[in-house]
Every structure is written in C-alpha cells, then in structure tokens.
Amino acid sequence: MRWSRGRKRPSAVRLKTEGEIEAMRESGRLVAQVLQAVSSAVGPCVTTIELDRMADDLIRDAGAIASFRGVRAPVAGVPPYPAATCISVNEEVVHGVPGPRILREGDIVSLDIGVILSGWHGDATVTVGVGGLGEEAARLLSATRESLMAGIARARAGGWLGDISAAIQEYAESRGYSVVREYTGHAIGREMHEGFQVPNFGRAGSGLRLREGMTMAIEPMVNVGRSDTLVEDNGWTVVTVDRKLSAHFEHSIAVTRDGPLILTEL
Asked: What φ, ψ does residue 187 adopt, rounded to 5°?
C-alpha cells in the first residue's frame, strides 16, 4: 500500500537500532514466506480472491495481521481497503482488489503483501506469470526486477535518496519502459508509511541524506507504454491509461553500516 496524489505525507525520519532491524527482518521473512506460497498457487483458472484467502490464512496462522485490510482510501467517500492483499493483473498497476477474476494463461499478476508482526511492518511485492509468459511480458518482468535491485544497491549510508530513485529510473528507461510517478515507495517501520517517500524517478545527489538505521520499501512500478495512470471506479485499483502491461516488484530494506540489507527475503 503506497502513497498517492493528494495525500498528506509526513517527513520525519525514524532511525532503527540493530535490534529493531532484526525484529523487522522477522516480519519481512513472513512476507517472503507468504509470497513464495501464494506465487506457487498462481495458475490458470485460479481466482484472485482464492489467492487472497490463502495469504490471509497464512498470515493469521503465523500470529500476524494483514496490514492492508482497513486502510483508509486517499479519496473521501471510498470504503476502506477490503482485502488482505493487493493483487493486480496485466494493466493493473497497484491496489488491485481481489475478487472473482479468473486468471488466464499468459496473464501477469502482481502480488503485494504487507504484514504486522510483533508491532513491525513488512511489505513486498512480486510479479509472476500465469503459465507461460510471452516475450514482451518476460522482458518487462526482468527489467522491473532489475530496476529494483539497481535501486537497492544505491541505498548506502552517506548517499542520497535521489540516488535510489535515479538508479531505478535509469535502468527501466534504458530498457525502453516508463516508470509510474504518482505512486512511490515509502519509509516503513512501526507504521506502514513512516516518514518519507521513495520515488521511482529523480536526480542522483538530491533529496534526503541516507543514514544508517533508515528503513524503507523500495518498489518500482514499470509500464510497457505510458507512465500515466488512472483509478478505476472502485476507488482503489490503479491501471495504465493506455491499458498496456505494468509490473511491480518491492522489497523492504534497511540501510546498515555494511550496506543495504533486504528484510523481505528468505
């Protein structure tokens, strides 16, 4: 769940101790475990609500809370988010609401999962194919995943937040894709959105100075066509304006003295 246009954004930076980062690793590992299990269940004829229920059960069984359910919408009059996960298919960028949609061979599916475990948030996303992937979709997924890793590599104490943003943008655009600008990564910790944003575009050497103990969710959303998006009538699901494919990868990370530490991996 990420910030969108028109929403107030806090600016405080909350640095974490080594013990707090280790606690965040526990919530992050749970996210990774749930993502691994749900990804393996993706296939033709499966519905998105079935995947959501599976994730919800796994989170509950681990004694954690699905952090997306009940999040307030950034627009007045839209009900709170109703599901445990965000599941976005094909042209859906983020915040896809699980429901009766049946997955079909060749679809791409972004699985965005957040949990609260022992008071700490974890948040990560993968995009996977349903059955065999076409060449265009396979290239998009690879470029989006690698743009995430390029951004993570720049999350080093003494650098700048803009270094992360610029690395993501440069990698994605060098492969012929566009990055979504209305939705961004975010600081994370005791709260899902804890302080600053992490845009997927920007200028190296700009923005906040990166410090040891900063924790954030880095999450490029990359489109085959234009970067522009719109929100569907349910008030949540974000789609590409031109209805071309979009992919989304995300990790929660910590800035440490030894470099970036990925919190949401097994």
From this structure: -65, 155
Q: Which domain holds residue 108?
A: 18-262
pLDDT at 130 over 80: yes
In whole angstroms, give the CA distance from residue 151 to residue 255. 12
Q: Output phi, psi for 221, to 5 deg.
A: -115, 120
Full-model pTM:
0.95
Domain presence at residue 247: yes
pLDDT in tens, 80-101: 999 999 999 999 999 999 999 9
Q: For 184-224, write each residue's pLDDT tens digit.
A: 999 999 999 998 999 999 999 999 999 999 999 999 999 99
CATH number of domain containing 147: 3.90.230.10
Assess contact for 123 and 64: CB atoms under 8 A.
Answer: no
